[in-house]
Design goal:
This protein is α+β, with helices and mostly antiparallel strands. The protein is built from ten helices and six strands; from the N terminus they run H-H-H-E-E-H-H-E-E-E-E-H-H-H-H-H.
Length: 262
């Protein structure tokens, strides 16, 4: 999207404007990391899912965890960038970069990574699950029925809130906050997109906050920020910064977690 003077007003048109102008002046071009085929498929599937679940909005990201290249990213509903006016139901918001959400159970991968880093549990250890887990005046519940006990490996496999909360509490709130900061989750991710958003997290990070953050409630991050941190969990433990510019280089940075944890 550009204004009448051909200045980018949002998205990559704005974020890559200086690179585009420099390339054009030298007779060159700027290649993005986006793959039109993957982008088409992702957009179609996300829109179908939005219809199926009658969701107000939906989105998705496909990213190379070693280079950080964003192969596809979609935010629905979107709009026709060739049109000067929005139609009914259109939206210019890129919810993947500029909105934050409580992302829920996908956060459990960070709780288990922290437990591996701190050696606070082993995979065959048995945890009591039961019908609820009390912390002060609060009770943690499961989204679905769970067995009375679960091994740690099954806590992750079956996505148990109660089991994950118990594991996180072994490290404690101070250590959990330090680890999530270390993983970049408490700060916005900076990319060629001008749109980004600060993560939201509690000022008072006590036991109940530690328990709920362990399974992705009480902390809100942008989906793009989550994807960047999740990439570290699976790429050997190395820091990655997403990019929308084509590169064939391995752009993994600092070692954030041990390779064996990853």
């Amino acid at each position: 999207v550009t204004d009448p003077d051909n200045n980018g007003v949002s998205g990559l048109e704005m974020g890559l404007q200086d690179k585009l102008r420099k390339a054009a002046a030298n007779g060159g071009a700027v290649a993005t990391s986006l793959d039109a085929r993957v982008q088409f498929i992702l957009t179609h599937e996300v829109e179908e899912a939005r219809k199926t679940f009658t969701a107000r909005a939906a989105g998705g990201i496909v990213m190379d965890v070693n280079t950080g290249e964003v192969i596809a990213m979609t935010s629905q509903p979107d709009f026709d960038p060739n049109a000067r006016n929005l139609g009914p139901g259109d939206s210019r918001r890129n919810i993947m970069a500029q909105d934050v959400y409580e992302l829920g159970s996908v956060f459990k991968i960070f709780s288990f990574a922290l437990a591996f880093e701190d050696h606070t549990m082993h995979l065959d250890e048995i945890f009591q699950i039961g019908q609820g887990y009390k912390i002060g005046k609060y009770t943690i519940h499961e989204a679905e029925h769970m067995p009375a006990t679960l091994a740690a490996r099954d806590i992750l496999a079956q996505s148990s809130n109660i089991g994950t909360a118990q594991i996180a509490l072994r490290s404690g709130g101070v250590r959990q906050k330090q680890f999530l900061t270390h993983m970049g989750l408490l700060t916005p991710v900076q990319t060629e997109l001008p749109e980004h958003r600060q993560s939201l997290y509690p000022a008072n990070w006590g036991p109940i906050e530690t328990a709920t953050i362990a399974f992705g409630q009480g902390i809100s991050v942008s989906p793009l920020r989550f994807a960047a941190s999740a990439a570290t969990i699976v790429n050997g433990g190395r820091q990655i910064t997403p990019t929308f510019v084509k590169t064939d280089a391995d752009r993994r940075g600092a070692q954030l977690i041990k390779p064996e944890t990853s």
